[in-house]
Amino acid sequence: MLAFTVKRLGVALLVALTVSLITFSMIYVSGDPAIAIAGEGARASDIEAIRKFYGFDRPIIVQYVDWLAGALRGDFGRSFTLRQPVADIIFARLPVTILLGAAAIGFALVLAIPLGVLAAVRPNSMLDRFALTVAVVGQAMPTFWFALTLILWLGVTWRLLPITGSDTWQHFVMPAIALGYFVTPAVMRLTRAGVLEVLASDYIRTARAKGLRPPTVLFKHALRNAIIPVVSLAAVQFGFMLGGSIVIETIFQINGLGYLAWESIQRKDLPTMQAIVLVLAVIYVLLTLLADLLNAFLDPRLRAA
Amino acid sequence: MSERILTVDNLRVDLPVPAGTLHAVQGVSFHVDRGETVCIVGESGCGKTLTALAVMDLLPARARRTAQRLELAGRDMLSIGERAMADIRGARAAMIFQEPMTSLNPAYTIGNQLEEALLRHSRVSRRQARARAVYLLERVGITAAASRFKQYPHQLSGGLRQRVMIAMALMCGPSLILADEPTTALDVTIQAQILHLLAELQREFATGLVLITHDLGVVARIATRVVVMYAGEVVETGTAAAIFSRPAHPYTRGLIACIPVPGRTRRGAALGTIPGMVPSLVGKSIGCHFASRCDYAIDACRSADVTLEAARDAGHLVRCIRHAELPALAPTRVAEAAP
Ligand SMILES: Nc1ncnc2c1ncn2[C@@H]1O[C@H](COP(=O)(O)OP(=O)(O)OP(=O)(O)O)[C@@H](O)[C@H]1O
Ligand code: SF4
Ligand SMILES: [Mg+2]
Fold it and tell me: Burial code of A238-277, b = ≥16 C-beta within 10 A, e = fewer?
């Protein structure tokens, strides 16, 4: 298990490094960054001054190493437009986004896994059909529309929850449901398919042949093997939610990373965009690593890889 | 009279299939006494596995099981509920499966899976369960049992896994073991070892053993009694001595003629070189199931169902209308002999 962990960690580091390289080159993909900062119709001398100030005149490789060294220390440079350190901007927003993402994936798993298991244990039952309905509706309904429906019912009609902001945990309930419900169908179907497949396997027959009770057969012998693909899916979806919650963050006016990304793009604030992409990518790599380790814990055959 | 462990009377298993109903087991009857080894033989698909699964009540959910009687150690297994049946499974009747590579859970150590069987059925500590598991691992011929105990199934060869399955079956000291072709998936060299082991343990623990196998050579050596199945039916049953010295059914005679002879036949050669195909088990059929392949078939064989009749020896039953005259008969259909 130790060798496995070290190996996976190495791979994760390599991926993170590659991502950082791509992220860094973002700044040159869209043309000369000095011109972009200076804006339309700037004088050549101003552009030159900006180029010197930000160090764009140095060799690219030097700039990259410099930027990477900074990033490793948590220094992502200064925002072009907000005139403050990018790190300060990002780390003010990151906890909110992570909290929202965690709550959303938590909600999705808590809803989807039991439904998927029940649907698999009683295929074609009423419950299975109900679960299927949940899945179909979840896939068909646009996120923003679902979010607005939630606001209308829970926020306006029944006044159960606050509608906008991110001050208390209550503020996270609706956004988390709106964001999490979107991944529920995929998780549920994967759980259902996994449990169905495992329940038909020979070792489940062995477990039953030992006289084990149905709950032991299901929870000890079936679920552990059936959940493995779900772990990977959940990690990927969690990653997507962190980067892709712009709509939800906008609707509920949550000042998270998604919203910041949207603002930065509009302001052409390259250092901030770079930092967001890098931070999200590193989190993504870490999530994948975590999923791999968890799966290796669940299935000893994976530890050899 | 010896102690009756298992009574199976008129067992039927039906499976819904797209084309209709598949009558996989059609009125099978046999019994097992303490200390006996009853071998079930027959070609692939004749219903051996489903018969064993029906006894354990482990049939696929879609399958429908009916029987006149199904008793384990005097206990009626047809009327008891699923909970009571689960108390019997593993404790009084254990099963060893055809597929050693996939019959163990990849996620748990073999030690865990062995202990679990005993912990489920008796009030023993984990330490006691472990001690029994290690003892049985040694008994089934696994060296360094204590360290194997901590290994996962994927770290073991097929032969070792099947030994683990045998040890698992013995954990609670069952009175009946159903072994479904325990060696077909294994190397030829390992096959004999495993079968010897089973026979030895069966004697030592005085269990009743139902051994399903393709290997008539093995049957001749270890069977007390033999049940020959063909297309879902028992076509002949009797003591091993009677079956091998005076086989009464043309199918049995065909099987015995195909037994590999040491030195002359390749080891592990497939049984069933009887020409022809097994009839479909879907829907109703009339007459002797074997008629399409039988060298002695006459019109009467196809016009009415054939019942099991007593043959010459005590307890020897055969499903063939011509069994009495058979020894003196010439085949109605002569195989095209090569010049
Ligand atoms: N789950 C199932 N669904 C449909 N048909 C099945 C199923 N299991 C078995 N059968 C059919 O039932 C018949 C008897 O199957 P069974 O597995 O008992 O044969 P067997 O004698 O054990 O054969 P083998 O020697 O190959 O193991 C076969 O025709 C098989 O195709
Ligand atoms: S009943 Fe007829 S067809 Fe069937 S085995 Fe006997 S002789 Fe052959
Ligand atoms: Mg079989």
Answer: bbbbbbbbbbbbebbebebbbbbbebbeeeebbbbbbbbb
Q: Does the residue A8 lie in any domain?
A: no
pTM of the full structure: 0.87
| Bridge partners, residue B310, by sequence | B317
Buried b (16+ CB within 10 A) or exposed e, B81-106: eeeebbebbbbbbbbbbbbbebbbbb
CATH number at residue A151: 1.10.3720.10
The minimum-distance atom of ligand 1 relative to the CA of B13 is: 12
Residue A33 lies in a domain: no
Domain span holding position B287: 1-86+187-262+271-339
Q: Is position A187 within any domain?
A: yes
The nearest CA of chain A is from the CA of B284 a distance in Å of 29
Of A205, A209, A212, the CB nearest to B94: A209
Residue with the smallest CA separation from ligand 1 atom 9 is: B50
Say whether both B113 and B163 belong to one domain.
yes
Residue-wise pLDDT for A130-180, tens only, equals 888 888 887 788 888 888 888 888 888 888 888 888 788 888 899 999 999
Q: Which residue has the tokens 């060799």?
A: A59
Q: Is A209's CB within 8 Å of B58's CB?
A: yes
The count of structural domains within chain B is 2
Please tell me if the CB atom of residue B296 comes closer than 6 angstroms to any atom of ligand 2.
yes
Q: What residue owns the CA closest to ligand 2's atom 5?
A: B320
Cα angle B125, B127, B133 (rounded to 5 degrees) comes to 105
Atom of ligand 1 nearest to the CA of B53: 18
Q: Is B95 on the interface with A (CB under 8 A)?
A: yes
| Residue B178 falls inside a structural domain | no
Q: Which domain holds residue A250?
A: 96-268
Q: Mean pLDDT per segment of 10 residues, for chain B of length 339 residues?
A: 90 95 96 95 94 96 96 92 94 95 96 97 95 94 92 94 95 95 86 88 92 89 95 96 93 85 52 71 90 92 92 90 82 48
| Interfacial B residues in 182-201 facing A (CB < 8 Å) | none
Q: B292: CA distance to ligand 2 center in Å?
A: 9
Domain count for chain A:
1
Kindly state whether residues B71 and B220 are assigned to the same domain: yes
Which atom of ligand 2 lies at the shortest distance from residue B302's CA? 3
**Confidence at residue B331, expressed as pLDDT on a 0 to 100 scale:** 66
